[in-house]
Amino acid sequence: MISYFRDDRLCEADSFLSVVKPDDTECPMIAAVGAGGKTSTLRRLAEEYALMGEKGNCSYNNSYERRDDSMELCG
């Protein structure tokens, strides 16, 4: 069971795909950001997608590259 918030209400669903609802485009893309659970969530989505008989690609990058033109906030 998947729990999620929609319109400030706690809801439940049987699968991530039923929550995300990728459209019928040839190559739907999903991105995950935040502090924890991204890789597990994307792997679960990929597994559900494969169970539907679809092919997919799951890639990630968890490194941070400091750029010279990045803004620094000093307090």
Fill in the keyword field for this structure.
two-stranded antiparallel ribbon, 2 helices, 75 residues, 25% helix, 2 strands
Quick take:
The protein is α+β, with helices and mostly antiparallel strands and 75 residues long. The chain contains two helices and two strands, in the order ββαα.
What order do the helices and strands come in, and which of them pair?
Layout: E1 2-6, E2 9-13, H1 16-20, H2 38-51
Antiparallel strand pairs: 1-2
Characterization of this structure:
The chain has 75 residues and is of the alpha+beta class. It has a domain at 2-51. Helix content is 25%, strand content 13%. It has 2 helices and 2 strands, in the order ββαα. It has helices at 16-20, 38-51, and strands spanning 2-6, 9-13. It has a two-stranded antiparallel sheet with strand order 1-2. The longest helix is centred in the middle third of the chain and has 14 residues, at 38-51. It is globular and about 45 Å long. The N and C termini lie far apart (44 Å). The relative contact order is 0.12.
